[in-house]
Amino acid sequence: MTAIDPSAPRRSLLARAWQFIKDLWQVLLRPSSVFGLGALVLAGFVAGIVFWGGFNTVLEATNTEKFCTGCHEMRDNVFAELKPTIHFSNRSGVRASCPDCHVPHNWTDKIARKMQASKEVWGHLFGSIDTPDKFRENRLELAMHEWSRFKANDSLECRNCHSAASMDITKQSPRASVAHQRYLFTGEKTCIDCHKGIAHHLPDMRGVPGWQ
Amino acid sequence: MIRKSFLLAVVVVMAAASTSLLAQNVSSGLRGDTPLNEEGPAALMTPQRNSSERETRNYPEQPPVIPHTTEGYQIDVNGNKCLSCHARARTTESKAPMVSITHFMDRDGQFLASVSPRRYFCTQCHVPQHTAKPPVGNDFTDIDSVLSHVAPGGRR
To answer: Is the pLDDT of residue B18 over 90?
Structure first.
């Protein structure tokens, strides 16, 4: 009885795959003998539109509140906390949704944030904050990520709606007007320095600058 | 027979009394003209006063009232929003009045390094004010008025 080498079929599969790649490379290198150049360019153009449109559509679909609150971690914790705050319910009904504050609006920053967010998908799949206790434990770290992002980009996501140039300080309370003139307009502080915990509950604030 | 008619009379009197009581309009400041057996419309909610100007205490021990809005301020085991302005170390930046030093005392009169846990929950004593019209009058007399009445010309 001839001995069957257990690695033989595996090696041949690898070899066949390698052969396929080499063949494909040859096909890609050689000029087409069937399709005209115009047809290829047109097909490439159409395919490009389809791929790019599809990519952007999916990107925008993941940039909605409905998508964010699709996971119970977001819906039961941070989204529930947002609801009584002024960024969800107020006199005029203008409101911020999750990506307005948590995803940068310009493209490169948005893609960078989306790549970071892939870790959040991992966290969801492996349940890193799937119970209230785990969420509470990680809350400070998660909040720190957001605070440092706001601090680094000079509270860009706040300023997408709240422009210092359009602030009428005569319409603000004396307290707010004085603080904004002294710290915001001079650039000494940025929004997040004072306005932490305005849309979600605060984590344990011991050791956070400005807090006890 | 007499007993029966007496009972009837009692019932009639009680019924009359109770209906007249029900129909009675007791006009009090809090209830308004709402009859006693009905629930009146809820009063409109008023906004919190936000002048930021210190208000005079009505009596020496009164916890100072809060002259600004405190909506959404978190005061719990995780943090105290009030202290981010009123804490000792924060007052230079915020220009807010510092938490009274009495708030650092424990119940044995010993001073602690920071606000005592029993004084941590600010809004147990200090409350924001609303722009509401008081529904009932108040004839409270300030101690200074009493003193000047007792000893005209004043005394120290």
So the answer is: no
Q: Are residues B36 and B48 in the same domain?
A: no
Q: What is the dihedral of CA A57, A63, A64, A67, to 10 degrees?
A: 90
Mean pLDDT lowest among A28-32, A204-208, B32-36: B32-36
Residues of B with Cβ-Cβ distance to A198 under 8 angstroms: 72
Question: Number of folded domains in chain A?
Answer: 1
Q: How confident is the prediction for chain A on average, in pLDDT?
A: 90
Q: Report the pLDDT value the prediction gives residue B13, as an integer from 0 to 100.
A: 65
Nearest-Cα residue of chain A relative to residue B84: A211
All residues of chain A having their beta carbon less than 8 Å from the beta carbon of residue B91 are none
A201 to chain B, any CB pair closer than 8 A? The answer is yes
Count the neighbouring beta carbons within 10 Å of the beta carbon of residue B99.
Answer: 20
Determine, for residues B74 and A197 on separate chains, whether the beta-carbon distance falls below 8 Å.
yes
Q: pTM value?
A: 0.76
Instruction: Please give the tally of structural domains in chain B.
Output: 2
CB pairs under 8 A between A and B: 46
Query: Which CATH number covers residue A79?
Result: 1.10.3820
Distance, CA of A39 to chain centre: 38
- Name the phi and psi angles at B79, rounded to 5: -175, 165
Say what the ipTM of the complex is: 0.74
Q: Which residue of B has its CA nearest to A83?
A: B72
Residues 27-86 of A with CB under 8 A from B: 84-86
Whole domain around residue B1: which residue ranges?
Answer: 1-41
Q: Would you say A64 and A100 are in contact if contact means Cβ atoms under 8 Å apart? A: no
Q: Are residues B33 and B63 in the same domain?
A: no
Residues B55 and B107 in one domain: yes
Roughly how many angstroms between the first and final C-alpha of chain B, as a whole number?
78
Judge if B152 and B137 occupy the same domain: yes
pLDDT at A1 over 60: no
CATH of the domain at B61: 1.10.1130.10
**Confidence band for B155, pLDDT divided at 50, 70 and 90:** low
A103 part of contact set with chain B, CB < 8 Å? no
CB contact under 8 A, A174 and B53: yes
Q: What tens digit of pLDDT does each residue of A37-94 get?
A: 899 999 999 999 999 999 999 999 999 999 999 999 999 999 999 999 999 999 999 9
Q: How far is the alpha carbon of B31 from chain A, nearest alpha carbon, in Å?
A: 29
A72 known ligand binder? no
Separation between Cα atoms, residue B48 and residue B22, nearest integer Å: 36
